[in-house]
Specification:
2 domains, mainly alpha, 4 helices
Length: 108
């Protein structure tokens, strides 16, 4: 999907509409399931998913590597940093910050 011709969002409602618009172009599964969630939860889940996809795209396009796990489509196994939704989001944020800072910063 080419989003370069899309105008940048101007307001929060524009941001939410834009992320809902691009979701089907980046995830078939999430694009089918997120719309059945309550509106606010759907907005948060869409944003979280797109942020994970953005990190994945940056890593793939730049050739960046990491020994950290990013959880996206599913929770991690029991006992892992991604075992619950909250711990998964915390682990993802921490891994992204460590990766972008060369390991100098952490979220925890």
């Amino acid at each position: 999907m080419n989003t370069e011709s899309s105008p940048p969002p101007n307001t929060t409602s524009d941001d939410l509409a834009y992320q809902a618009h691009i979701l089907p172009g980046v995830s078939r599964t999430f694009a089918l399931t997120i719309p059945v969630l309550p509106e606010r939860l759907a907005q948060v889940m869409t944003n979280a998913y797109l942020l994970c996809r953005l990190a994945d795209t940056i890593a793939r396009e730049t050739g960046a590597t990491s020994h950290d796990t990013l959880y996206g489509d599913t929770l991690g196994p029991a006992g892992s940093a991604g075992a619950t939704y909250l711990s998964m989001e915390q682990a993802n944020a921490d891994a992204i910050v460590r990766g972008l800072s060369g390991g100098r910063l952490r979220c925890r």
